[in-house]
Amino acid sequence: MDSVISLMSEVEHREKVAKQAVENIGKSSLDALAKLDELKQAQLVAREINQTRAKEVYAERDVLADEMDVLQMSVAGLLNMGESSVGILDEVQHILILRALTSHSVSHLNPYNLDKFFKY
Prior knowledge:
With 120 residues, this protein is mostly helical. 94% of the residues lie in helices and 0% in strands. The longest helix is centred in the middle third of the chain and has 106 residues, at 2-107. The chain starts with a helix and ends with a helix.
């Protein structure tokens, strides 16, 4: 009879331990589910932040592209002006060289020949 009572005590003790283990597993499962929900919410927030930032980056990229187009047009205009300015400067240089040569040639003439040179 003692062995039956001892066996009954041991069974009751094992049932208590098993019941406690089931409760712990249930609690752990609830904790894990709560943590999973928390992580899902954090993921949603992170995704929204990333999407917002991506929109800002694309908008900034578009603005920079527009500014780049304007700068390219300005540079092209300046280059065209520079080319025409160089042409004008070449022409002015040519005229000044001709004037210098002419004045040098005329300064070597005597006054009598100068009158013949500028005859009307």
